[in-house]
Design brief:
By secondary structure, this protein is mainly α. The protein has helices at 9-40, 47-65, 69-90, 100-122, 148-170, 172-182, 184-189, 194-220, 226-241, 246-266, 274-285, and strands spanning 3-4, 7-8, 138-140, 145-147. α3 packs antiparallel against α8 (194-220).
Length: 294
């Protein structure tokens, strides 16, 4: 078997692919967190539960109603986005003028309630979700085997991240969002409904988390703790990229996924902590993050 840097080529590229897949979920989830923090200044700990909700809605739709993967990919984010809108309007909006710590504690409590309800009803074991028939199989690239579904996850994640960045940075709606973040009072004076923008932004962030959950279901299976296990890592990604930075969320999401995958090749025991080690270094050298503003 051919080797590169003393590592079998198939093993090396296999871990790079695994890193890209993990990075895809890191990027989408940290993107949602960055959007919510950028506009609402809320560290949304409910994000992991919303990711789990997306996966569970896909599983329940298939198990109870026969709803397929492609339909779930549209409906689950919509439903979770609507629940996010309800959370923002009924709960988070009441904390708009108090210390941000209260928003963090509230979203953390909501996450615990959601996870507890699903764990009580479905247990802690993983529930399998099949890969859609159109995306089964794979391609032999010579140096590695590329499963079709995993390639799809990386491609659609890149597309979603790019589309979100273009929407926020290059459109009138994005300019309104940025203005509402920096000068909400002045923005309202120009006739822009800032509370509506805030609500829809939180809903969009929740929908992104649910979209990632549906993508993850065929790879990681579905269980009530899947969001809790991932959200801590995603917070590390957001801190490294810069709180509220859209570009930082995307670049560091994919980049840290690759670093984590390569760490498994060269020193596997460090793969679980490498992101947090990088976070510590970044906080010491550049507290605002790689792409964040002081």
């Amino acid at each position: 078997m051919e080797e590169l840097l003393g590592i079998p080529v198939q093993a090396l590229f296999g871990q790079i692919l695994l890193g890209l897949i993990n990075g895809s979920f890191y990027a989408i989830l940290s993107l949602g967190l960055a959007i919510i923090f950028g506009l609402l200044n809320i560290i949304n700990f409910t994000h992991g539960a919303q990711y789990m909700l997306g996966a569970f809605l896909a599983w329940m739709g298939l198990s109870y109603l026969g709803v397929g993967y492609w339909t779930a990919l549209l409906i689950a984010p919509l439903l979770v986005g609507l629940t996010g809108i309800a959370i923002e309007r009924l709960l988070l909006a009441r904390l708009a003028n108090v210390d941000h710590l209260y928003g963090f504690l509230l979203t953390y409590g909501i996450a615990l309630v959601i996870q507890g309800l699903f764990r009580n009803y479905y247990g802690a074991s993983a529930l399998p979700y099949p890969v859609p028939a159109e995306l089964r199989g794979g391609y032999d690239l010579g140096f590695m085997f590329l499963p079709t579904y995993r390639g799809w996850v990386v491609a659609i994640s890149l597309a979603i991240c790019l589309a979100t960045w273009l929407l926020i940075e290059k459109t009138r709606l994005g300019s309104h969002l940025r203005a509402a973040t920096e000068k909400p009072g002045l923005t309202e004076a120009f006739g822009i409904n800032v509370p509506l923008l805030v609500t829809m932004t939180y809903g969009a962030g929740a929908a992104l988390a649910a979209f990632a959950g549906v993508l993850a279901a065929p790879i990681y299976s579905v269980n009530p703790q899947m969001g809790a296990d991932l959200i801590i890592v995603v917070f590390g990604v957001v801190v490294i990229g810069g709180m509220g930075s859209i570009l930082g969320a995307i670049v560091t999401g994919f980049g840290l996924g690759l670093i984590e995958g390569l760490t498994k090749v060269f020193y596997a025991p460090a793969s679980d902590i490498v992101i947090f080690v990088i976070m510590i270094v970044i906080l010491l050298v550049r507290p605002a993050g790689l792409f964040g503003k002081a």
